[in-house]
Amino acid sequence: MGPVLITGICGRLGRALARRLHRETQVVGIDRRPFIGKPKDVVHHELDIRRKRAQDVFRTERPAAVVHLGVMHDPRASSAEHHSWNVSGFSKLLDYVAKYEVSKVVVLSSANVYGPRPDNPQFLEEDAPLLAGSNFSEMRDLVEVDMIAQSFFWKRPHTETVLLRPVHILGAVHNAPSNYLRRDVVPTVMGFDPMVQVIHQADVVEAIRQSLEPSVRGVYNLAGPPPAPVSRVIEVSGRGRLPLPHFAFRAALRRMWRWRATSFPAPELDFIRYVCMVDDARARDELGHSPRHDLEATVRAIDDYG
Amino acid sequence: MNRLRNKRILARLRRFTRREAVPVARHGIASALHTVDQLAIGFLGRDFEERLARVPIEREDPEGTDPFGFDVDTAKYVAAVAAFFHRIYFRTDVFGIEQVPTGRVLLVSNHSGQLPIDGLLIGAAMFLDAEPPRFMRSMVEKWTQTLPFVGTLFQRAGQVVGVPENARRLLARDEAVLVFPEGSRGVSKPFAQRYQLQKFGLGFMRLALETDTPIVPVAVVGGEEQYINLGNSKTMARMLHMPVFPVIPQWLVPGGQLPLPTKVRIHFGAPLRFEGDADDEDGVIGAQVERVKSEIRRLLDEGLERREAVFR
Questions:
Q1: B74 touches chain A (CB under 8 A)
Q2: Cross-chain residue pair B65–A195, CB shorter than 8 Å
Q3: Per-position pLDDT tens, chain A of length 306
Q4: The overall pTM is greater than 0.90
Q5: Fewer beta carbons within 10 Å, N or C terminal of chain B?
């Protein structure tokens, strides 16, 4: 197998994936950040995928597969930059994939694109509509990235496109759910305790590796251990819980957001208010996805944080 | 000097709270709950606890809830409240419950009264009178999920959001699922329209055909006299942005908020099995729905015929 190109390799998940893959195959990374603790045999290109030079990486390295982890979800970034990075950057990447006839693309989207809603079925399947953008403008780019990947799947039958939609990833990663649970006292919305699904970052890495197997293609939801109420997840994390009335919580969050005291935008409160869970039967049957970490191990992983 | 002493007092106070007051309070709450439990059991009959132990519950996490958020420890209290209304308040008589199959089943009932008390009582019957006892699941309106506490309580007690995907999943798990095909048309009827079945939805029949599930028709008698609704005010409903505004004089009387203690009779019919294409035209499905509706109509008439008085 030819080299695997990983975008966003310098994030915590990217580094974990590189470490998982580099002994089996040649790994090439693209990221604008430097790769700290890079294994010797990994080739890293410190550049922005929107730059012309990104094409040179395809020309010289000739990757056999591309794993796109470089989706930005930073509500603090300007919306123009956010959109340009996620949408223009990703479209460019897919242009190169088509031009250099890469035979496999794995895109890491998220189960959050379905959006938390009071009328959601308890378990959403892959063909459920992506409604996250209706309430969260910050999520629209992520929905768009998912849609672009889906249309690429149909437009380029020669390329095996795999779109992964994992539930809340927990681990050493710097994402919203892990940061939320890392607080000493975790605030919740009073009177709401929806069921949630979490997945250990190592199980996501494993699913990405399984997606790289030849002939795997399609959209896959990824879930971890059986779902649990938010309160139970917080209990397992060993943190205290502070229920706040919704109106007060939302008002406080808005104010803190304006003062740059928090990285959680107020509309994202719906993730701890309404259900947004997936059915991952397809990944279990076709991909061989079988998460090895139970709820305890998954939630505890947020403290492995170096 | 003074500040130092204050600090010491504060530290002592904190130590007292942490070592003495909090554990004592916790113990107090725990023993109070235990007393409530014992009282409830004594009140509701010995079989309550014995039945609770026999309810089959499927859950992956022994400490937690099932995938739908159903939690036995909460459901126990809801079941106790339901048992109180079922056995003591409404003195419910249950007929034909032995005909309900043990596997997956759709209970299809008339919807009556002003509040969905009928659902609570059918659930209580499935727990207290069915053999083996079961925790029935029912489908609730999606807007209930937007209400704090209420939505969570419903989930913990085994109610799920009323979308077809959820019903399909529950039936695949061999659960007993209650549906009111009249939906909200059934409740909030004026008193003059009592026991008149409203238009039935077709969704439940498609679901039964698709999942090959037997349908048990259920008729609840006694629900329509719990609140006397003189009529629905359209003007008030529009002004208050409510779907419906029933005029119920007894709500103005202190204590009138509780339903009148009518005697409730629940009639379960023989299971009906249907065959056909779940995606067939509305006309074909409608004819099958009509069979269920007329069976409920028959049970309802029979129940009304047999009752001697509303409160007895």
A1: no
A2: yes
A3: 789 999 999 999 999 999 999 999 999 999 999 998 899 999 999 999 999 999 999 999 999 999 999 888 887 888 888 899 999 999 999 999 999 999 999 999 999 999 999 999 999 999 999 999 887 777 888 999 999 999 999 999 999 999 999 999 999 998 999 999 999 999 999 999 999 999 999 999 999 999 999 999 999 999 999 999 999 999 999 999 999 999 999 999 999 988 888 888 888 899 999 999 999 999 999 999 999 999 999 999 999 855
A4: no
A5: N
Range of the domain at A97: 4-303
Q: Which of A39, A113, A25, A129 is nearest to A67 (CA)?
A: A25
- Number of domains, chain A: 1
What's the half-sphere exposure (Cβ side, CA atoms, 13 Å) at A119?
Answer: 8
Q: How many CA atoms does the CB half-sphere of A106 hold within 13 Å?
A: 32
| Backbone angles phi and psi of A46, in degrees to 5 | -90, 85
The two structure tokens encoding residue A284:
């279990």
Mutate to test the interface with A, among B22, B59, B61 (most CBs of A within 10 A): B61
Nearest CA in chain B to A125: B165
Closest CB to B146: pick one of A118, A121, A232: A118
Q: How far apart are CA B35 and CA B307, in angstroms?
A: 38
Assigned token pair, A43: 């080739």
Judging contacts by C-beta atoms under 8 Å, the chain A residues touching residue B160 are 122
How far is the alpha carbon of A237 from chain B, nearest alpha carbon, in Å?
A: 15
In this structure, what token pair is assigned to residue B219?
Answer: 């008729």
As for the ipTM of the complex, it is 0.87
Domain locations in chain B? 2-44, 53-306
**Closest Cα in chain B to A244:** B148
Residues B67, A193: C-beta atoms closer than 8 Å = no
Q: How many helices (H) and strands (E) does chain B have?
A: 10, 7
Residues on chain B touching A120 (C-beta within 8 angstroms):
161, 163
Q: CATH number for the domain including A17? A: 3.40.50.720
